[in-house]
Amino acid sequence: MMRDLVLRVLGKLLIPFVLLFALYVQFHGDFGPGGGFQAGVITAAAVIFYAIIFGLPAARRFAPDRIVESMIAAGVLIFGGVGVFGILMGGNYLDYFVLAHDTVHGQERGIFWVEVGVALTVSGVMTKVFYQFAERRRVVDEA
Amino acid sequence: MTLLTMMALITVAIVVQRNLFAVVVFGSIYSFLMATALVALDAVDVAMTEASVGAGMSTVLLLGALHLTRGDEVKPLRRPLLPLFVSIVIGAALVYGTFGLPAFSDPQAAIHTHVAPRYLLDSLRETGVPNVVTSVLASYRGYDTLGETTVVFTAGAGVIALLRRRRSEKKK
């Protein structure tokens, strides 16, 4: 599959648009269908698509393990951080309306960061799990 | 109805089929049919998740797992009559349970009269987000979503811990 011309060309054409679509789903989730979870899965799918066509080492250059692993933790930390920030601003845990001067704006801000956190964790976990599976085959082959 | 019939046919095909590659592909088709059914029910957010996770991610991961194992299902040693009996009884009990549910899209059903009207009416004014699914998910039910994210995090950490340990054992 590594030398398949059609797949390589199509992959190079499509993957930028897949990533763009993930961003659209992420930031348009307030208005249309979508949100952090779906955007995270689509981002991970783009990386996996790349890994399947161009091989695992190429994907690891694009999305190194260290970044992917820190994304997993960073997402949950951002989500929890929004809650703690709400306490610091004088509300309860995960109260968003204290995050800005007026309550509606605070809600929008809170929802935005929460969705960012969800997207980071989901895409990190999906990519990492795929890396682990794909890499494991190589380890077994060597043994 | 067509969709449900096709899904039932796919399920039978999955049960009958012994080649695991075909089973994975059938599972992917099943997920796409499920996503279409959810679109028909106007649950676009769930349909999107089903299409990307059910048909996309799980298919890729199952294919990855298939690479590590053999491609054919082993024939069972005994005829699985007791499990068949148990599943038929439980299935019949579940079908019997559905007779107690309110009619489909009944506006007077309990689930539509508790908090749903408040979400639908006040969500835009209170959160400024037109998509009610997003506002319920991220704001009204923020704790649940935090829990879900933590579950995904824990699952990822578990997979990393399990598969990475094996690699360091190999190095010894």
Q: Which helices and strands occur, and which strands form pairs?
A:
The complex is a heterodimer of chains A (143) and B (172).
Chain A: H1 5-27, H2 36-54, H3 56-62, H4 65-88, H5 103-142
Chain B: H1 2-16, H2 20-40, H3 44-68, H4 81-98, H5 110-113, H6 116-127, H7 132-140, H8 142-171
Helix pairs in contact in B: 1-2, 2-3, 6-7, 7-8
Describe this structure in words.
The complex is a heterodimer of chains A (143) and B (172). By secondary structure, chain A is an all-alpha fold. Chain A has one domain (5-142). Chain A has helices at 5-27, 36-54, 56-62, 65-88, 103-142. In chain A, helix 1 packs antiparallel against helix 2 (36-54). The longest helix of chain A has 40 residues, at 103-142. The radius of gyration of chain A is 18 Å and the shape is elongated. By secondary structure, chain B is mostly helical. Chain B has a domain at 1-74. Chain B contains 8 helices and no strands. Chain B has helices spanning 2-16, 20-40, 44-68, 81-98, 110-113, 116-127, 132-140, 142-171. In chain B, helix 2 (20-40) packs antiparallel against helix 3 and helix 7 (132-140) crosses helix 8 (142-171). Chain B is globular, with a radius of gyration of 21 Å. The relative contact order of chain B is 0.05. The mean pLDDT of chain B is 85.
